[in-house]
């Protein structure tokens, strides 16, 4: 993998999957079995990477998908095409989840288009590498928490009135929450907050019949790292430190999001799944 990786220079995150080489593998591996038939899902960051793979798999399993993304219109259009090719319906909504008003507006658009919300996937996030804590600017620190933590709160708050018994919320945390990361101090801190939020929100909503869980991916080949989210040194050997010796693909992470969204996980809440290449973590 390392020999094939080329860093994509972007003015800002999240970056275009359409420009990434090699292309991430997002395609579902198996035929659908209607595990999400009749459901409506909101997936943030669904224009590319893990979000696209989740949107594709959810669509194959029968869900209509609202694709929330920041600004990569070409990638979002492709995700919508993928969802429709699976025989489902897609709604693309561009904007910043770190803006509370946008989250409220987006949920309103989903309700107008589909009339319900059954699954909320808080997947969108950003990261910026810094080798020294003194290099993290106030602007970067606030921006990382605004996207990764505040955005998760804002969207969940907006969706909450529409989530009924049987609904599922799945948040994306990270292996860095458990292992730490020497060059992702602010990002890792947000992922710790997300795990705590997941467990606390589960306690808050479990009595309402709403399950809240999380997925903690390891190093996954998406635009996030090569488009500014990782140093050149890290990219050179991206994923090689895992027991499996390679980075994962979005298609290897999406099934965790499917399991937690469907009735197969009806007795699970407040839990975290770890598609991370064999890294042993506690929690």
Topology (elements, then pairings):
Layout: E1 40-44, H1 49-60, E2 64-69, H2 73-85, E3 90-94, H3 100-114, E4 119-122, H4 138-159, E5 168-172, H5 176-179, H6 185-205, E6 211-215, H7 225-229, H8 232-236, H9 250-261, E7 272-273
Parallel strand pairs: 1-2, 1-4, 2-3, 4-5, 5-6, 6-7
Helix pairs in contact: 1-2, 1-9, 3-4, 4-6
Reading side by side through the largest sheet, how are the strands ordered?
Answer: 3-2-1-4-5-6-7
What gross morphology would you assign?
globular
The rounded Rg comes to: 17 Å
Provide the helix percentage: 25-40%
- Count structural domains: 1
Strand content: 5-15%
SSE run: EHEHEHEHEHHEHHHE
Biggest sheet statistics: 7 strands, parallel
**Count of helix runs:** 9
End-to-end C-alpha gap: 29 Å
CATH topology-level name: Rossmann fold
CATH class: Alpha Beta
Would you tell me the structural class of the helices and strands? alpha/beta
Question: Under the CATH scheme, which architecture would be assigned?
Answer: 3-Layer(aba) Sandwich
Task: List low-confidence stretches.
Answer: 1-11
């Amino acid at each position: 993998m390392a020999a094939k990786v080329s860093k994509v220079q972007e003015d800002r995150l999240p970056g275009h999957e359409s420009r990434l080489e090699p292309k991430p593998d997002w395609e579902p591996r198996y035929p659908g079995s209607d595990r999400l038939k009749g459901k409506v899902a909101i997936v943030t960051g669904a224009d590319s990477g893990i979000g696209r793979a989740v949107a594709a798999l959810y669509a194959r399993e029968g869900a209509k998908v609202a694709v929330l993304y920041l600004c990569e219109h070409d990638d979002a259009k492709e995700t919508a095409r993928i969802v429709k090719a699976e025989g489902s319906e897609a709604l693309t909504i561009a904007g910043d989840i770190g803006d509370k008003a946008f989250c409220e507006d987006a949920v309103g658009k989903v309700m107008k288009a589909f009339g319900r919300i059954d699954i909320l996937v808080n997947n969108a996030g950003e990261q910026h590498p810094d080798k020294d804590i003194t290099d993290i600017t106030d602007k970067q620190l606030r921006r990382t928490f605004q996207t990764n933590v505040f955005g998760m709160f804002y969207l969940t708050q907006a969706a909450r009135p529409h989530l009924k018994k049987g609904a599922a919320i799945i948040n994306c945390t990270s292996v860095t929450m458990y292992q730490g990361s020497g060059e992702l101090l602010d990002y890792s801190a947000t992922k710790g907050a997300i795990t705590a939020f997941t467990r606390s929100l589960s306690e808050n909503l479990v009595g309402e019949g709403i399950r809240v869980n999380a997925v903690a991916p390891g190093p996954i080949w998406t635009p996030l790292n090569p488009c500014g989210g990782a140093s050149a040194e890290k990219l050179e050997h991206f994923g090689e430190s895992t027991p499996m010796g390679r980075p994962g693909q979005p298609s290897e992470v999406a099934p965790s999001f499917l399991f937690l969204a469907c009735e197969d996980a009806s007795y699970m809440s407040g839990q975290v799944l770890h598609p991370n290449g064999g890294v042993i973590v506690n929690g």
